[in-house]
Amino acid sequence: MSEAFPDIPKIPFEGPKSKNPLAFKHYNADEVVAGKTMRDHMRFGVAYWHAMRNTLSDPFGAGTSQKPWDDGTDSIENAKKRAHVCFEFMDKLGIDYYCFHDRDVAPEGKTLAESNKSLDAVADTLEELQKATGKKLLWGTACLFAHPRYNQGAATSPNANVYAYAGAQVKKALEVTHRLGGEGYTFWGGREGYATLWNTNIKREMDHLAAFMHMAVDYKKKIGFAGPFYIEPKPREPSTHQYDSDSAACLNFLREYGLLEHFKLNIETNHATLAGHTMRHELEVALAAGALGSIDANTGDELIGWDTDQFPTDIYLTTQIMLVLLKMGGFTTGGLNFDAKCRRESFEPVDLFHAHIGGMDAFARGLKIAAAIIEDGRLDNFVKQRYSTFDSGIGAKVEQGGCTLEDLEAYTLKNGEPVIGSGRQEMLENLVNEFI
């Protein structure tokens, strides 16, 4: 088929002095920073649902997005054409990965059998394109929130027939993800929660959700899928409350139901904002539990109370994210998936390129700044010194697990009132500003 973006060349790296809006100013894929190339640090992914499918509608108006390659039908042929467009888009941006929901890439039929047949047909095309280009599937997932049958949940639906349908859909999505070499599989509980507690039995719903996850783990083993499962936290919207509300809630659920060894978290900035947290908080909580797996790279508008899914351009944000990733040692199977959409006013195909270029450049700057902060050492040294009383004496005894309340009392009676040091918050903020 002919090019979908004939007037747009492959996006070059031209450096910070370039005025070309279709060039990278900071993202140089093969540049080595902190021992790895930028490409390997970031593992950027295109979100199929936004880049290829989002119409840019909002609660107050119809979609504005111009997609001249799309004939507007739900045909399999149109879905296959869309796959070619996505791979052309990735190629011109130099992005190696993509992510999808099953219903993003293939039309839903009148029956599950029809839907499965459609998904297999489009997966044939995706497999051919992956082999031809070397592009990879970062993770797949099932859309268990858009269809009216899921209006009261999927794995937490009060209707066992809906629950069964959701399980069948996940089974197929797992099979296709495995077939396409997906490096992980994500569960986003878009409607796994409640609108009101007057009609909700939380205990039964949580038990049902856990049973669903255990079935998925069992089937993953059966088909030989080796990638991790991810859970993506989000507190609310569209539901009043969703059970996977933040990193801590997800980890608590996984521990309570014996699932933690099988799951990591896929953290999204906009969801952290809706939970009343910072992105860094959510990442640090996941990292502390050894459960940080992947990241949906976007941001939200703090003045708007819903999930705006904007492209990340805040250098402080990307620096904080990359500091956590470098602390973790980098991604293994996860990556930075641009779960972000253009603004409704930015509706031309070229705007998709501007948006991704900006996000990639922002993360490149964040990587370099984070690496410089770590190499400088002052921030890490301050934090280390702040906890130094736990490196020996009574503090070390606490950390080693051999301390009692009697020991703490005896120590305090002998040593008297503690002398504490300043947290130096302003100094540390100034320190970070030196690098930004």
From TrEMBL:
**Cofactor note text:** Binds 2 magnesium ions per subunit.
* Residues annotated to bind Mg(2+) 1: E232, E268, D296, D339
**Keyword rRNA processing attributed:** no
Q: Where in the cell is it found?
A: Cytoplasm
Gene Ontology molecular function: any one: magnesium ion binding
EC numbers for this chain: 5.3.1.5
Report if keyword Cytoplasm is assigned: yes
- UniProt-listed Gene3D superfamilies: Divalent-metal-dependent TIM barrel enzymes
Q: Which GO terms describe its biological process?
A: D-xylose metabolic process
Key words of the record: Carbohydrate metabolism, Cytoplasm, Isomerase, Magnesium, Metal-binding, Xylose metabolism
Catalysed reaction(s)?
alpha-D-xylose = alpha-D-xylulofuranose
Specify which residues bind Mg(2+) 2 according to the UniProt entry for this protein: E268, H271, D307, D309
Q: Which GO terms describe its cellular component?
A: cytoplasm
Cofactor(s) needed, names only, are: Mg(2+)
Family, per entry = Belongs to the xylose isomerase family.
Q: Which HAMAP family match?
A: Xylose_isom_A
Give the record's subunit note: Homotetramer.
Protein known as: Xylose isomerase
Organism of derivation: Roseimicrobium gellanilyticum
Gene encoding this chain?
xylA
